[in-house]
Amino acid sequence: MIGAFEGIDGAHSQLVLDAYFRARDIAGQTLGSGNFREIAMAVAGGRAELGVVPIDNTTIGTIQDAYDLLFEFDLVPVAELSWRMDHRLLGVPGATLGDVREILAHPLVLAECGKFVASLTKARAIPCEDTGIAAREVSRRGETQIAAIAPPSAGTHYALVELAADIANHPDNLTRFLIFRARHAKPEVLALDKEGPRKTSLLLTAKNLPGALARCLEPLAAAEMSITKLESRPQPRKTDRAEFHIDVLGDLCDPAQSSVLKRLRESALEVRVLGSYRADAPFTVGAATVPIRATSMVRERQPMPPPPKLSSSTPRVIRDARPEGTRVRVGNVEIGDGTFTIIGGPCSIESREQIVATACAVRDAGGRMLRGGAFKPRTNPYAFQGMGWEAVELIAEAGRVSGLPTVSEVMSIDQVERMALLIDVLQVGARNMQNFDLLRAVGRSGKPVLLKRGLSATIDELLAAAEYILAEGNPNVIFCERGIRTFETATRNTLDLSAVPVLRERSHLPVLVDPSHGVGVRRWIRPLCRAAKAVGAHGVMVEVHPNPPEALSDKDQAMTFDDFAEVCRDLARIPLFEDDAIALV
Ligand code: PEP
Ligand code: MN
Predict the structure, then answer these.
(1) pLDDT digit string (tens) for 465-492?
(2) Is the CB of 346 under 6 A from ligand 1?
(3) pTM (2 decimals)?
(4) What is the SS3 assignment for 33?
């Protein structure tokens, strides 16, 4: 069994995984990963059966990124382990504490040892990706002025000596780790940790009103379930709702407790269950001196191994794979059941003024996301091809200025990595829907993907294209119906609105409609936006330009800011029909 952790040999998380395997007599191997997202993708994509992430620590509190990734990749917690983080300052043989001028450590570790680090007034703290890398770097450089904060086992592994011990701010510096698996896992993984005391982790949303939280918690009190954690998530903006991380002792996923969960759901605005897991860890504290096993298998930042061979009996795109439906979260926007998302922006990004003005107009009218092309797939090679990377930087800036997440098209594999650093949702355009290598690459990026239907693609082919992305372990795919080729020439394409209920029935992934490319004529976009919402789409994506006649691409279908505001007002008047579409199944 393979377990993925963040870092290389010597990392705390690797010790945790090793201890987990040993306590269960599992012949496990550990797979080093670059960051939390890579771990999540390794598990969701089947390259590892288990993963481990820290979720909170006595000094620094909750590690939000870890929670968010577990939700994003639909990962299921199996067990928790509270681990004493035995931090030591390690240097090369011959070094003394007085020599140290640079301290290398993981940023979380630097925070946990903040007081000690500050006491070494001559030394500079240097954040490092991982504990193991910090220790290895000190060993490699061989200089007495440089030291790493790492567990003692890393010292043994990299031949370092201890310069100081017990350096954490908190005498009981405990980190809680979660071991997790993919939702659809092999039987031997599903069988892990079924026994023993259980805990359930939830994300609960309550109204921001006096007494609202107390009322939400009432069903837990009535069921005599103890709360072991209650922490509000930082809210960057003032809103009328507040989110809380809650851990309770007990198994709220057990069908016997379904009435408690039901009451909780009735009293709160929303309850998302991360999962129930084994909550006792027999090897909790003091295990940090365990040596690293020779059997460990560490691959550091190597190219991803080829995806696992999927048998045709395990498709991930079909509704049965996730009957409750997928919600794709992009920043503070969620696309999926229960929401209708309007995305607006120009066909092509043309200048800073154009994209920033459009972003603000889209946001002010009620749009939730900004679109804009930097790389344009044009039929005519002499037509405007987009401003390229300069435009990618500009839309990222417009996204920051307006507060809107961004979506932009990637045309080739070599663009994916850099786009993923700057853009929130990667669009695969109609002409690339069956570029299978590109689909795999956006799958591996871990970024949400907006997948447009090909010009002459059937719904089956669209579903199969999404499967390529899901098979890489990336669950965040959004379909986009944008019109198909038919004999009809009065409209640019034929907007196939019947694809919406069909896709919703056949898949759990959210579906958007792009009437701009569907009809290609400005005045017909508004009625088709209304139709898209009425037929059960989860949102629309439309082209908006400050001055449509001057647009460098698709000027006939670009809406003015006023047109766009009208469309948003129209759409607000149309109810969501999501349940009807599903009820037909
Ligand atoms: C676009 O959305 O900018 C675009 C080029 O659309 P499509 O791939 O649907 O033609
Ligand atoms: Mn266009």
Answers:
(1) 999 999 999 999 999 999 999 999 999 9
(2) no
(3) 0.70
(4) strand
